Amino acid sequence: MTGAAPDDAWLVVIDMQQVFTGDSPWAAPRYDHATAGIERLLPRFTGRTVFTRFVAPERPQGAWVPYYRDWPFALRPEGDPLWDLTEPFASAAADRRDPVVTEATFGKWGTGLQAVVGDHPHLVLTGVSTDCCVLSTALAAADAGATVTVVAEACAGASDDDHERALAAMRLYAPLITVVDTAADLSARTETDIPSA
Question: HEC states along the chain?
Answer without folding.
Answer: CCCCCCCCCEEEEECCEHHHCCCCCCCCCCHHHHHHHHHHHHHHHCCCEEEEEECCCCCCCCCHHHHHHHCHHHCCCCCCHHHCECCCHHHHHHHHCCCEEEECCCCCCCHHHHHHHCCCCEEEEEEECHHHHHHHHHHHHHHCCCEEEEEEEEEECCCHHHHHHHHHHHHCCCCCEEEECCHHHCCCCCHHHCCCC
